[in-house]
Amino acid sequence: MANLQSSVPEPSSFAGASPPSPSSIGGGAGGAASAAQEPRKMASAEQLVLDLCDRELRENALLELSKKREIFQDLAPLLWHSFGTIAALLQEIVSIYPALSPPVLSPGASNRVCNALALLQCVASHPDTRIPFLHAHVPLFLYPFLNTFSKTRPFEYLRLTSLGVIGALVKVDDTEVIGFLLQTEIIPLCLRTMEMGSELSKTVATFIVQKILLDDIGLRYVCATPERFYAVGSVLGNMVISLADQPSTRLLKHIIRCYLRLSDNPRACVALHNCLPDMLKDGTFNISLRDDPATRRWLQQLLHNVTVGGMGGPGMGVPPQPGLDHMMGI
């Protein structure tokens, strides 16, 4: 799960696949062999999908499909349109609800349900199944996992994989997706993970909040009330403070991008003029951002925006406003 700037992390097991051989490209014997393998791969995928509906075979099918989902073409439509398959995956999810509180989830149970979640991420990522996936309200089944507090590995893995499904939805800019998520509790749930999750979970959760803010309706939603702005701003501020002791360039990048987007709202920009963490202004992270020119530019633009916005200068095109200062205690 390497770089979140333009996408949600993908499993590393397929990231380093070697390029095809010249024979497979040129249509020689290797190409013919590869073409002959495709029907066998699809037949294998179809059989594994059928196995999901058999309780005795489901665990192995979950494991094999989650490991090989990148090499099975059109696996998402196959999963979505096969009779009983999504119901079987949801059955895997709800079966561990009793283990969430009190937190008694075992590593084996966590791995199994995370394999099911990996297949749902596949469905959430595919352009033909993303919107039907939303309309069926499947993401809501994942929210109990994001509402957990245990920091043990099984729960952390469960939260991270659940965030991966939501991240797959927001990765492609789609106002319908953002509109759906804003009708749910996704922002408070992401903020909770940003406060108490692992560095990787915090990064994915912040990426989701960033993508919501980058959509106009998401920015309007967060800045519509002082309470919403304060909830997001206070969590971002606490994360900046914690990064001074435990630096993470990739997490800092998404925090800065969230702040920059908030500064596009005039009222929020006035509030940020007074409440933006000093560590973003005094060069604390200069070394961390030394090799990341894009994030340095974002930070420079953020500081410019809040300076001009706080003075009500022409850069913002608005006069000074009370903004959201009152709820920041300013």
TrEMBL record:
It holds the Pfam family Rcd1. It comes from Triticum aestivum. Residues 1-37 are annotated as: Disordered. GO terms for cellular component: CCR4-NOT core complex; P-body. Residues 1-10 have a biased composition (Polar residues). Belongs to the CNOT9 family. This is Cell differentiation protein rcd1. One of its GO terms (biological process) is negative regulation of translation. The lineage of its organism: Eukaryota, Viridiplantae, Streptophyta, Embryophyta, Tracheophyta. It comes from the Eukaryota. SUPFAM superfamilies: ARM repeat.
